[in-house]
Amino acid sequence: MPRLSVNVNKVATLRNSRGGTVPSVVEAVRVCVEAGAPGITVHPRADQRHIRPADVFDIAAVLEPVRDRVEYNIEGDPRPDLVDLVERIRPDQCTLVPVRPGELTSEAGWPASTPKEQLAEIIARLRERGVRVSVFVDPEPGPIDWAAELGADRVELYTEPYARAFERGGELLERSLHRYRAAAERASTNGLGVNAGHDLDLANLPTFLSVPHVDEVSIGHALIARALFVGLGAVVEEYLRITAFR
Fold first, then answer.
1. Can you tell me the distance from the alpha carbon of 184 to that of 178, in angstroms, rounded to the nearest whole number?
2. Is 198 assigned a catalytic role?
3. Per-residue confidence at 245, pLDDT binned at 50, 70, 90?
4. Catalytic choice (43, 50, 140, 156)
5. Which CATH code is given to the segment(s) 3-243?
6. Per the residue annotation, which of 50, 71, 156, 198 is the catalytic one?
7. Average pLDDT, the chain
8. Taking a C-beta distance cutoff of 8 angstroms, is the pair 220, 41 a contact?
9. Distance of alpha carbon 83 from its chain centroid, rounded?
10. Is 90 exceeded by the pLDDT of residue 246?
């Protein structure tokens, strides 16, 4: 069954809205780990609107004693400072995502027309340092084949379209599931692992897990939002019951 990686960006967003150190991203990570989360994700953007470089190092220190059971995933666009940060931290995984000017959150995966040379060099550098590399793609054959040609280890399937289809249900949902199942099969055929993320939540995740070959689901916004009402540890346990991690 897939591993759950908890994205703690929104904890940093709340902290930064007021300034200071409250709520503590480090404490949020500790709570997630104590609740049994097998993965932690951060996305340090260039504008530092949520996770900051110092957070990345602080979280690495917290996770160091439990790295045998908790994976650390750093995601972001492959700008020089992000690549340097990943090389210094050496997390278990780096997820490379495209960034569009002015976006609030990721809006699409890498298109298959993206030039390969620079990204392939970055992927090779990170893999040489023992970092597994995933690339964020739409669930389509072209981008998945492109990711395999780059030398990536995994793809992360962009699941916002699935989430919208789940809300509408019926034939639209069935078509969406067929699309993601086909994408996962193609990734597996290409020798790629499969991650998934964006707008997955307690309602739509059980149905999505009918998609084969999924190694990891990354969930942040929905998980942190529900934690406001039931507590962070409790909601991590809710997601773990779905992913059957324990």
1. 10
2. yes
3. very low
4. 43
5. 3.20.20.70
6. 198
7. 95
8. yes
9. 17
10. no
Domain boundaries defined on the chain: 3-243
Find the range with the poorest average confidence among 20-24, 38-42, 96-100, 217-221: 96-100
**3-state SS class at 87:** helix
Burial of 244 (0-12, 13-18, 19+ CB in 10 A): exposed
How is residue 101 written in tokens? 């000017």
HSE, side-chain direction, 13 A CA sphere, residue 135: 31
Percentage of residues of the chain with pLDDT beyond 70: 96
Give the residue among 80, 31, 38, 72 at the shortest CA–CA distance from 55.
72
* Number of H-type helices and E-type strands within the chain: 11, 8
Q: Is 75 a catalytic residue?
A: yes
Give CA–CA dist 144/152, Å, rounded: 10
Q: Which of 71, 75, 140, 156 is catalytic?
A: 75
Question: Global pTM?
Answer: 0.95
User: Would you call 221 a catalytic residue per the annotation?
Assistant: no
Taking the C-alpha atoms of residue 246 and residue 242, their distance in angstroms, rounded to an integer, is 9
Check pLDDT > 50 for residue 47: yes
